[in-house]
Every structure is written in C-alpha cells, then in structure tokens.
Design goal:
Elements: E1 2-7, H1 13-26, E2 31-34, H2 40-51, H3 53-58, E3 59-62, H4 64-70, H5 81-95, H6 111-124, H7 129-138, H8 142-162, H9 172-182, E4 190-193, H10 201-213, E5 216-222, H11 238-251, E6 257-260, H12 270-280, H13 300-316, H14 338-345, H15 362-374, H16 381-385, H17 394-406
Parallel strand pairs: 1-5, 1-6, 2-3, 2-4, 4-5
Helix pairs in contact: 1-2, 4-9, 5-6, 5-8, 7-8, 9-10, 10-11, 13-14
C-alpha cells in the first residue's frame, strides 16, 4: 500500500510521519524510517522523544547510503579519486581508437575528469552500458547515436578495468537494488520516507523492491491539496508531482492513499494567511502586520543596497542586533563583491557562510600528515610541521623545507 502525507511548509509533515512510525513500532511492527543522509542523527533524536526507547528496539532509522553499507552493497576496497583517475585513463587508452565524437578530446589531459563526471551522472541516473546501448539503438539523430555509442564504450571499459579489484561508490545503489531484488530483509515492513522531494534514477531502482515488498510505504511531500498530482503544469510543485507519479508506477498498483495537512504553524498569522491566499487565489483575511515586505529593484546592486540599508535602519531603531540578521539568496555567487560593498558602506559586520573542503582545515592536514608519518611515510613530516600545531618558528620550517628541496631529500631523518 502506497501512502502520501502532503502539506505546505510548516504544516507538521515530519511530526505526523514520526508519530505514525512510533505508533507502528509500539505495536511491535517492523519499521524502517528512511531520510536523507544529513538528517539521520536528528531524526533518531526526534523519534526517540516521540516513541521512547522502545521505538529504537523495533525500528531502524537510516539513509539509502547507510542501508547500502549495512547490507554489504558498498564493497570492500573503495576506489578513491586518484584510483578513479588512473582507471579511467586506462579505460580511455583502451577504447580511444573506437571513439567518434570524443576521439580528439580523449588525448587531452582534462578529458579524464570530464569522462568521470559523465559516468558519475549516468550511474546516478541508473544508466549503465546496457541501457546506453538500448538508447543507441532507439535514437534517430546520427549525432546522438554516436555520442551514446561513445558513452557506452567508456562506461563498459571503465567497469571492465575496475573489475573485482575496486568498488566504485557510484555503484552502491545499483548493488543495493540487486540485493533487495533477491533478498529483501524488509519484506512486509512498514517503511517511512521523510524529507525527500525527488530521487535519482538508480535510487528508484532501490525503491522498487522496497515499496513492492512493504506492508505500507509512506512518503511526505511538500505540496497542497489544490496542486498535488493535478499535473496542471504548476512549476512550483512539478518536481513533487513527477516523483509521486513515478512512485505510483513503481508500486505496480494504481491505488494509493493521500493524507493532506492544510494548517500551517508559523509564529505570526499574516504569513500563513498570505501563503494560503497564494495557493488558493483568494484574498488574505488577516490584516497586514509588517512581517512581510516585497521590494522591486532594478538589479543586484540596488537589491544589495536596499537590504543593507534596511538592516542598518532596523539595528539603529533597536528592533534587532546584527547577530539576529540572516541574508538568504537563491545563489550567493553572483552577489559576492556586490553585497560585500553594500554592507561595508554601512559598516555592517558580516561573514559569508560558504562551504569549505575539510582538507583545507589546518587540524585535518595535521592529523592526516601525523597518521601518514606514524604509518612510516616520513616524506609527510614536513607537511605535519607546516600545519601550525607545533611550537616552531614558521620561518625555520620554511628554511628546512628549502634545504630538503635543494638537496633532493624527500625524507627527514
């Protein structure tokens, strides 16, 4: 049985699905609660509060990647980025003479990462060399046929050179799908999926045996009663509609149940009334309270200046502090440099909340270098000394490095 819990933002979808999961667990039913990787820990905490300790004894909270690890679909020896580069280089050298569209590009150094990116995206879409070959036979455009043929050759060669020596993490979902098709440990379980809006092609292959073997499969989606599965071309919820229709197709049954949550829970009354009016086309029945303002600007520069000026006015009037304010944009990259100048103009302190790779962290570089030195790789000792976690003069460390380079010494003993 397929069930959807549907409602707008802040309508209590997560609370509702967790409450239903806890109720099933109290009846000693087998429960699997699946969320995106980043929400596993917080979901476990929330479900522990809702269902108590008994819930964790009879239910399992996981993500699809953790499920692959548990069932042994993630292999033993994973191919890291360097291994993938080497394996793809070998695969390209084996099929370069057979390529057509990519024949000239295959000799360039930057073709290897491009090919790896293409294979990664194809695997996420669930397209292996067999499906690519099938698409090749059905394609009508000569250019498209050549491109599909090249991609099929590259995919086949890459998987062949990888063989049994390495496991590609991109294949985890594919291996998990095969395991679930032959031996599904969640047969007749109640499976709950929360915080998803869509899935990749290969993830749909995993969902198929889970949904068909489940006693009940429950999904939460952000949409509303007026738009859900209406397929009227509404851009706002079109992704959700496509996902729900695909899940109905995967279930193998045309029947499904939908539970709508219409009420929203915001701190003020005007915002939910405005949202309801937007969805239904009616007039908001709550007087304007100043909590929501729309400004029309000529471009990014005027937008940035308007935001900075409004923020400064609110701080000066004592309504907020600088630390209370957050500026959110759909894409921050186009605003970098523009917003900086606008905030600096009004002397507003700020920082960009940008993601940085863990490898750029000094403590990570220190720990990695220290572990490599402990494992016998004394060539990493300089990197360990340069991390800044030793009481050493940085200039002295630099002179030591220069001495090692000038004298051809790769190790320090």
């Amino acid at each position: 049985m397929l069930k959807f819990i549907v409602g707008p933002a802040m309508s209590g979808k997560t609370w509702e699905i967790q409450k239903q999961a806890a109720e099933r667990a109290k009846k000693s039913e087998k429960v699997l609660f699946v969320v995106p990787e980043q929400f596993v820990f917080s979901s476990e905490q929330m479900l522990l509060k809702v269902g108590g300790e008994g819930f964790m004894r009879t239910a399992e909270v996981t993500s699809l990647s953790k499920l692959a690890h548990k069932l042994g679909a993630d292999g033993c020896k994973m191919a890291d980025a360097a291994a993938k580069q080497a394996l793809m280089s070998l695969a390209v050298s084996q099929v370069s003479d057979e390529l057509t569209i990519y024949k000239k590009q295959s000799v360039r150094a930057d073709f290897i990462p491009m090919a790896l990116t293409a294979i990664h995206r194809l695997k996420r879409a669930g397209l292996d060399e067999t499906k690519l070959q099938d698409l090749f036979l059905r394609a009508k455009s000569p250019f498209l046929k050549q491109k599909l043929s090249d991609l099929s050759l590259l995919s086949s060669a890459y998987n062949a050179v990888m063989g049994d020596k390495y496991f590609d993490p991109d294949d985890d979902m594919k291996r998990l799908a095969k395991i679930l098709e032959t031996n599904n440990p969640y047969q007749n379980a109640t499976i709950f999926f929360d915080a998803f809006k869509d899935f990749t092609g290969v993830e749909y292959d995993v969902l198929r045996p889970l949904i068909r073997g489940a006693k009940e499969a429950v999904f939460t989606f952000t949409s509303d009663r007026e738009s859900f599965l209406k397929c009227d071309g509404c851009v706002l919820f079109s992704t959700v509609d496509r996902t729900a229709l695909k899940l109905i197709e995967l279930s193998g049954k045309s029947s499904y149940e939908t539970q709508f949550l219409d009420n929203t829970y915001f701190d003020n009354q005007f915002l939910p009334a405005l949202e309801r009016a937007f969805r239904t086309g009616e007039t908001a029945d709550v007087p304007y309270d100043g909590s929501f303002t729309v400004r029309c600007c000529s471009g990014p520069a005027e937008e940035a200046d308007t935001v900075a000026r409004e923020l400064e006015n609110r701080v000066r009037s004592g309504k907020i502090r600088y630390s209370d304010a957050v500026i959110i944009a759909r894409d921050c990259k186009p605003l970098q440099g523009i917003l900086d100048r606008a905030l600096a103009k009004y002397d507003i302190p700020f920082f960009w909340d940008n993601r940085k790779p863990l490898s750029a962290s000094p403590i990570f570089r220190f720990l990695r270098s220290a572990l490599e030195v402990a494992c016998g790789d004394s060539a990493k000792l300089l990197g360990c000394l340069k991390s800044g976690f030793f009481d050493l003069d940085p200039q002295a460390v630099c002179r030591l490095e220069n001495y090692a380079v000038e004298n051809g010494k790769r190790t320090l003993t």
